[in-house]
Design brief:
The complex is a heterotrimer of chains A (about 230), B (about 90) and C (about 200). With about 230 residues, chain A is mostly helical. Helices cover about 75% and strands about 0% of the residues of chain A. Classes of the chains: A mainly alpha (about 230), B mainly alpha (about 90), C mainly alpha (about 200). Chains B and C meet through helix 1, helix 3 and helix 4 of B and helix 1, helix 2, helix 4 and helix 7 of C.
Chain lengths: ~230, ~90, ~200
């Protein structure tokens, strides 16, 4: 079949999402998150009591991080169809995909380091936990610009038939708006903009997952249409 | 078609008037006007959502949009207004 | 009289901008709605603290900002009409005027931020001001994006193909975005300045 690697790459975005949810979310027990207002004792005992679960879960997550890159590449191939040879947005988009994978990898690695010696001085575990959460939730500009650039490419695509449906471009803009509220997490220890808050965490996380799933489906659909057109 | 004297402009005047009314309710202590703080809160929210409906229908022109989109807008206004009123009365 | 003029303006039913744009508009508005509900919930838990903190702000300034945004929204409505009538430079000028309104809005907003920092020690540790800064801050970001869109619109309105379908779609989206900025402020203003 034509374009098999495109379809595999599109699906690899889902591997990233599943690896993050299952490893970090379920196995390591990070959903719902530890509160930023929790004391050092509470945080340290979380790592002490769930030591192996956390370490194993983060292993699963960290093994799946780079699968975001082939997904970005499959998306780049479609954006290149929209904008032609110069592919400014396609390249920007791929760069942001790599940056996002890097940011999440960094956050997850810090979680793994925090879980490495749970018997250590609790203040140090406290610090590492802060580092991990802030490194994971605060650097939002990678994913925000990723969605923005993708949205601009889709909305400015005037080819017929369009590569992606036009609503998906506006959905990208919405995604960029909704993943942005992570930027002030260092300012707050409670409320909707803390690292466990409704807007800075839950809305942003659900938006990011929904975006990856929807874009994967759209890429696969577009690839099939492309293959049919070529006969 | 007149640039300035048209329906959108009369809607705009209503919006200004509504702003003035909620300013009176919100700044003059509610007791002076003869109703409790709870009533004042609900009134202020209802006025805000009437204004929102006017902006959606006349400025964003949902009034003239296909009925499904228009009714999505109407439903959004009613839903959002009732949720916010419910939360204030909790 | 007024209503007959309005009636003449209406052709058949038409989706403002395009269907997909409403995914963004309703989505963004709904998330702000979620934020408003969160604010009202926490306000309901400790109303006295919120009212005390709120008393530092001047509701007249909030009202003035509301009027400025309403004025700018109306300028955009008139600009779109002018463009339909083929008066391109007038339309462009009106759009620039509404960018200026946005600029005045932001100037007043930021001067109010300065005042809050002057009068309150560590305002971010006060719940009311946390919501105040985040609600108005996210809204101000929308204002800035909107001003950028209006500037683009002002340029597009002058072009030879100002009313081509693709161009018109963009102009209507930009207009709707600006009205949404106004609409969000219509709720933020009473929530932060008027509720007791």
């Amino acid at each position: 079949m034509k374009f098999q690697s495109d379809i595999l790459s599109a699906c690899s975005g889902l591997l990233f999402a599943v690896g993050l949810l299952v490893g970090w979310g379920l196995l390591a027990g990070s959903l719902p998150p530890l509160s930023p207002s929790a004391t050092a004792e509470v945080v340290a005992s979380f790592y002490q009591q769930n030591e192996v679960r956390i370490q194993f879960g983060l292993g699963v997550t960290l093994a799946s991080m780079a699968f975001l890159v082939p997904f970005g590449s499959a998306l780049a191939a479609q954006i290149r169809r929209m904008e032609g040879e110069r592919a400014v947005l396609a390249n920007a988009q791929l760069g942001c995909a790599i940056l996002t994978a890097g940011v999440v990898t960094m956050g997850m690695t810090l979680f793994a380091i925090a879980s490495f010696r749970p018997e250590r001085n609790i203040e140090i575990t406290y610090l590492l936990n802060d580092m991990a959460w802030i490194a994971f939730t605060m650097p939002v500009s990678g994913i925000m610009v990723w969605m923005l650039v993708t949205g601009i490419a889709i909305v400015s695509d005037r080819s017929a038939p369009a590569v992606f449906p036009r609503w998906s471009g506006y959905f990208c803009f919405l995604g960029a708006t909704l993943t942005a509220p992570g930027f002030p997490v260092a300012l707050f220890k409670s409320g909707p903009f803390a690292w466990n808050g409704l807007l800075a965490f839950w809305v942003a996380l659900v938006t990011a997952f929904a975006w990856i799933i929807i874009m994967s489906v759209l890429i696969i659909r577009a690839v099939k249409q492309e293959a049919e057109a070529l006969g | 078609m007149n640039l300035v004297f048209n329906k959108a402009s009369s809607v705009w005047l209503v919006l200004i008037l509504a702003t003035a009314i909620s300013w009176v309710i919100g700044t003059d202590s509610a007791s002076q006007l003869g109703f409790g703080p709870e009533t004042a809160r609900v009134l202020i929210l209802i006025i805000a959502f009437i204004k929102i409906r006017l902006v959606l229908m006349h400025f964003m022109e949902l009034n003239n949009a296909p009925r499904s989109l228009k009714w999505t807008g109407e439903a959004w206004v009613v839903l959002m207004c009732s949720v916010l009123i419910a939360v204030t009365l909790l | 009289m007024i209503s007959t003029i309005g009636a003449q303006d209406k052709p058949s039913r038409h989706i403002p901008a395009e269907a997909g744009a409403w995914v963004f508009l309703f989505g963004d508005m709904s998330i702000f709605g979620l934020f408003f509900a969160t604010y009202l919930y926490y306000r309901g838990i400790s109303p006295a603290d919120f009212t005390a903190a709120q008393s530092i702000l001047d509701p007249n300034l909030g009202t003035l900002n509301t009027l400025i945004l309403l004025l700018s929204s109306w300028l955009v409505v008139v600009a779109m009409r002018a463009l339909r009538m083929g008066r391109q430079s007038l339309s462009s000028g009106l759009l620039i005027a509404s960018v200026l309104c946005g600029g005045i809005f932001l100037t007043l907003k930021f001067s109010e931020y300065g005042k809050v920092f002057e009068l309150v020690d560590e305002p971010l540790k006060v719940d009311y001001f946390m919501y105040y800064f985040m609600l108005t801050g996210l809204h101000s970001l929308h204002v800035m994006v909107g001003m950028g869109l209006l500037l683009f619109m002002a340029r597009h309105a002058l072009g030879v193909s100002a009313t081509s379908p693709a161009n018109w779609q963009f102009l209507e989206f930009g207009g709707c975005y600006w009205h949404m900025v106004d609409l969000l402020w219509i709720v933020i203003f009473p929530l932060l300045y008027l509720l007791r």
